[in-house]
Amino acid sequence: MKNFEIDFQTIRACVYRGEVGRFGGHLRPITALDKTSLESFVGIDEQIALLKANTQNLLCGRPYSHALFWGARGCGKTSSMRAILSSFLHETETKLRVIEIDKQDLPILPFIFDDIRDLPYKFVLFCDDLSFARDDESYKPLKRILDGGFEKVADNVAFYATSNLRHLLLEEYVQDTSQILHQNDIYDEIISLSDRFGISIGFYTLGSTEYLELIAHELGEISQDSLWKQKALNYATQKGSRNARIAREFINLYKGNLL
Questions:
Q1: Distance CA 67, CA 80 (A)
Q2: May I ask the CATH architecture of the domain 13-203?
Q3: Tell me, what's the pLDDT at 1?
Q4: Which residue among 31, 124, 231, 257 is the one 20 to 30 A from 158 at the CA level?
């Protein structure tokens, strides 16, 4: 059985580095935690409050759910989820521990669960950009973790994920008709997988007002210069969208006198 040598008494967050060639997979401690302030997010107060409350329930032994943030690219799904978890990790006496894992490493999940389910901590397993192709069966380890089996579901572990897709499924054109029935079965299974996330919250592009509010918050006193607003809107038009990622890119360029 795979053993992960990590001291969760002193390490609050880690990332799983999967096997590459002769290099075996391991849990690598994260020593530089994200310190993004939750106040820097605009227009998603309810989403943040819900996930914070859910995480607090996990820590307090109250009922909690697995969580999925889904929606358009660059709308703050990943950054807000990381900021929420980081806010708990920075608390002095927190029992929260976070393990980040990539989608391609999902088969290792049962082994991680075996190592952590009896520890005196509360764990969030975090997976960014989760999605599956129509014929992708790598969802099965995650399904077993969320559903449980003969062994009951661990009561100290929650799974948090982000995805560009509400139902986690990449749309593809099936050319081999002989595989349609099998792939449709997998399709239904993956769709049902998204139902296992009790918290499923959509993120959308920002309106002009929210987009400008987000930028103004970050610019601070610089925002007294009214010229930035038109430049910000022009930049969003050039990029083809208004979202948190584009707002951050504009802020960097504007502060660097590149716009």
A1: 13
A2: 3-Layer(aba) Sandwich (3.40)
A3: 45
A4: 31
* Predicted TM-score (pTM) of this structure: 0.81
Q: Are 68 and 163 in contact, with CB atoms under 8 Å apart?
A: yes
At residue 49 the predicted structure's pLDDT band, cuts being 50, 70 and 90, is: very high
CA angle 4, 97, 75 (to 5 degrees): 115
44-52, Cβ contacts within 8 angstroms, sequence gap of 24 or more: 44/76, 44/80, 44/203, 47/80, 47/201, 47/203, 48/80, 48/84, 50/199, 50/201, 51/81, 51/84, 51/160, 51/199, 51/201, 52/84, 52/87
How far apart are the C-alpha atoms of 80 and 248, rounded to whole Å?
13
Rounded to whole angstroms, what are the CA distances from 104 to 23, 99, 123, 145, 147? 16, 15, 20, 16, 20
Which tokens sit at 26?
Answer: 């391991």
In the predicted model, is pLDDT for residue 92 greater than 50? Answer: yes
What values do phi and psi take at 5, rounded to 5? -85, 95
